[in-house]
Write a structure and sequence with these properties.
Bound molecules: copper (II) ion
Structural class: alpha+beta
Helix content: 10-25%
Strand content: 15-25%
Strand order of the largest sheet: 2-1-3-4-5-8-10-9
Oligomer: single chain
Number of domains: 1
Largest sheet: 8 strands, mixed
Order of helices and strands: HHHEEEEHEEEEEE
Number of strands: 10
Distance between the termini: 40 Å
Length: about 180
């Protein structure tokens, strides 16, 4: 009886501890958003929630988010080019850039199909990756020529190369999350 009660209490506590992203406080979201980049960047950044709500005004041209999009908790710190890229990707709209764009994801990324941002299920023959801490670099498409598109080559690689959202993933550690 004692054991069953302990298990029950344990389960209830576990469920209570599971993060419900919708219920998070602004402070929790801001802390996670800021953890995506070095504090030199995140301290002065605008903090924007995944739904576009500004949680804190910034003044250095960077925008940190607590997740990639609704329901996600992988934070990122984006420069102006990446803010534009993420808005386009969220809307399924075209995207082009005439300049370099930088984004920090020092807490790592979601598990994604390296070729297809819209894929939601891993199937045989597809290359999926869940990158650890990394920097993301978007450049005019012609500048991607010659960069590997293999996430497991040991260095930087192109993600989503045949889409408007092609960018270079630059791991900053040796560790993939998955
Ligand atoms: Cu990333």
């Amino acid at each position: 009886m004692r054991t069953r009660l302990n298990i029950l209490v344990g389960v209830v506590m576990l469920v209570a501890a599971l993060p419900s992203l919708a219920d998070e406080s602004a402070a929790t979201k801001i802390t996670r958003a800021m953890s995506a980049g070095p504090s030199n960047i995140s301290a002065g950044a605008t903090i924007m929630d995944v739904d576009g709500t500004v949680l804190r005004e910034g003044d250095n041209g960077w925008t940190c988010m607590p997740g990639i999009g609704p329901g996600d908790d992988h934070p990122m710190c984006n420069d102006a080019v990446w803010v534009r890229l993420m808005a386009a990707a969220g809307a399924g709209a075209d995207f082009q850039t005439d300049r370099i764009g930088l984004s920090y994801m020092l807490q790592g990324d979601a598990h994604v199909n390296n070729a297809d941002p819209s894929d939601t299920e891993q199937n045989e023959g597809e290359v999926w990756v869940q990158e650890g801490p990394h920097l993301m670099v978007v450049v005019p498409k012609a500048a991607l020529l010659g960069v590997s598109d293999d996430p497991y080559n040991g260095g930087p690689y192109v993600m989503w190369g045949d889409t408007p959202y092609a960018h270079i993933m630059v791991p900053t550690t040796n560790d993939k999350l998955r």
